[in-house]
Structure formats: C-alpha cells, structure tokens
Amino acid sequence: MLQLEGQISGKWVDLLQLTTEEYLYREARLFLDLSKVRFVDRGGIALLQKLVGHQVAVLNASPFIAQQIAAAP
C-alpha cells in the first residue's frame, strides 16, 4: 500500500511511475491510497489509468479524481 499526499503532477508523476514500476516488476499486488491527494494533472490521470489497467487498486480517491480515472482516455 502506498499512501500518496498532495499533488500528482509534474515531476511527481515521473516519481510515481518509477516507484510503481518497481512493485509491478516484482509482481506485487499494489494499492494506492489517494485519500490525501488534492490534485492530479493530466499526466497523473493518464498514469493512474494505466496503472488501473495493470490491476493496481486505487483507493479513497475523491469523487472527481475517481471520475477522471474512470473516464476513457
């Protein structure tokens, strides 16, 4: 479980991608808790959509962020 805070934007999108790739490479089940995330930019949404496609569970996202993740790219 990774607890994310603040914003998923800019350089933080790249850092999240690198971090999650390590978990996915090890074939670990990954959960992302977004309860403390207040903003996600387009790059962050695209990454989260990609991660969901790789069976990463996104938990506790705000309704707006959850809707953006669920929208077709």
Could you explain the architecture of this structure?
The protein is α/β, with parallel strands linked by helices and 73 residues long. The protein has a single domain (2-70), classed as Transcription Regulator spoIIAA, CATH 3.30.750. 48% of the residues lie in helices and 27% in strands. The chain has helices spanning 11-25, 42-53, 63-70, and strands spanning 2-8, 31-40, 57-59. Strand 1 (2-8), helix 1 and strand 2 (31-40) form a beta-alpha-beta unit. It is globular and about 30 Å long. The termini are far apart.
Structural class: alpha/beta
SSE arrangement, N to C:
EHEHEH
Shape: globular
Strand order of the largest sheet: 1-2-3
Poorly predicted tracts of residues: none
SS element count, helices? 3
Mind describing the biggest β-sheet? 3 strands, parallel
β-strand percent reads 25-35%
Give the CATH H-level superfamily.
STAS domain
Number of domains: 1
Quickly give the CATH architecture: 2-Layer Sandwich
CATH topology: Transcription Regulator spoIIAA
What share of residues is helical? 40-55%
How many β-strands, per DSSP?
A: 3
How widely separated are the two ends? 25 Å
**Mean of the pLDDT scores?**
94
Quick one: CATH class?
Alpha Beta
Using only C-alpha atoms, the radius of gyration works out to 11 Å
Can you give me a brief rundown of this structure?
With 73 residues, the protein is α/β, with parallel strands linked by helices. It has helices at 11-25, 42-53, 63-70; strands spanning 2-8, 31-40, 57-59.
